[in-house]
Amino acid sequence: MYYISTEKEILVNQLMNLMKQTYWEPERSEEDVLTAMKNSVSFGAFDEEDNLVGFARVVTDFVSIWYLCDVIVDEYDIIGQVRRRPILQAS
Fold first, then answer.
1. Prediction pTM value
2. Of the candidates 6, 18, 7, which has an alpha carbon nearest to the alpha carbon of residue 53?
3. ∠ at Cα 45 (10, 8), nearest 5°?
4. Are 55 and 70 in contact, with CB atoms under 8 Å apart?
5. What is the pLDDT of residue 77?
6. Of 32, 38, 41, 88, which has the fewest Cβ atoms less than 10 A away?
7. What is the C-alpha separation between 7 and 16, in angstroms, rounded?
8. Burial level of 36, CB count in 10 A (0-12/13-18/19+)?
9. For the chain, first and last CA: distance in Å?
């Protein structure tokens, strides 16, 4: 079972591990990640053990414009193909 939360504090070290899996920003600094999170709405996807298994940010004016970015799902999970569908459906 997976759940999506904007309320749960996302552990930066877990997020940095996810960021290293991306092709677009594997070397993004922790400072840049924290700044980006502070200036947007962050969504964490968590497994039953509260491990961060997915992440996305939304940049918005909170009226009519939003931009979905930094969508990441952990690729190193043994059942990664099975995991992605429920996470995307939960969002």
1. 0.78
2. 18
3. 35
4. yes
5. 58
6. 38
7. 19
8. middle
9. 13
Residue 58 token pair: 């939304």
Handedness of CA 67, 18, 41, 43 (dihedral sign): positive
Distance (Å, rounded) from C-alpha 22 to C-alpha 8? Answer: 23
Residue 27, token pair as written in the block: 């070397």
Alpha helices in the chain (DSSP H): 12-19, 30-38, 80-90
Tokens of 61: 């004016």
What is the C-alpha to C-alpha distance for residues 16 and 21, in angstroms, rounded to an integer? 9
Asked if residues 89 and 78 have their Cβ atoms less than 8 Å apart, the reply is no
Please report, for residues 2, 34, 43, the alpha-carbon distance to residue 49 in angstroms, rounded to integers and kept in the order given.
9, 24, 17
Q: Cα separation of 56 and 43, whole Å?
A: 5
